[in-house]
Amino acid sequence: MPEPLHFPRESKELVAVTVTESGASVTAFELTLTPAGARPTSGWAAATVVGTSRGYLLPGTLDDGNYTLWARVTDDPEAVVIEVARIELD
């Protein structure tokens, strides 16, 4: 996993995410943000779309700390969950 992405905690900005399956871009996926070390169990929401990008919109209201961004692609009966980024807010 690459180094964490750094943002000021007050920042309200898109963390762009690209999900691919067999080399093709997937546009229907959900994201959730958890404290570092926690597994995703709730809070899933469709990716935010800004222009031609999809991703997670940091709300600008989170506490300082380390977080993990997860993506989930659901194709009945499967629901594939992947860790996509580590985020550090300060």
Written overview of the protein:
The chain has a single domain (5-89), classed as Immunoglobulin-like. The chain has no helices and ten strands. The chain has a five-stranded mixed β-sheet, with no helix packed on it. The chain has a three-stranded antiparallel β-sheet with strand order 2-8-7, with no helix packed on it. The protein is mainly β and 90 residues long. A hairpin with a 2-residue loop joins strand 9 (65-75) and strand 10 (78-89). It has strands at residues 5-7, 14-16, 19-21, 24-26, 30-35, 45-46, 48-50, 53-57, 65-75, 78-89. The chain starts with a strand and ends with a strand.
Residues in β-strands, percent? over 45%
Give the SSE order as H and E letters: EEEEEEEEEE
Strand order, sheet with most strands = 1-10-9-5-6
Average pLDDT confidence is 95
Total DSSP E strands = 10
Distance between the termini: 20 Å
Major sheet details:
5 strands, mixed
* CATH class annotation: Mainly Beta
The tally of helices reads 0
Rg on CA atoms, Å: 13 Å
Query: Can you tell me the residue ranges where pLDDT is under 50 for at least 5 consecutive residues?
Result: none
Class computed from helices, strands and strand pairing: mainly beta
Shape: globular
Output the CATH topology. Immunoglobulin-like
Structurally, the number of domains stands at 1
- Architecture in CATH? Sandwich
The share of residues in helices is under 10%
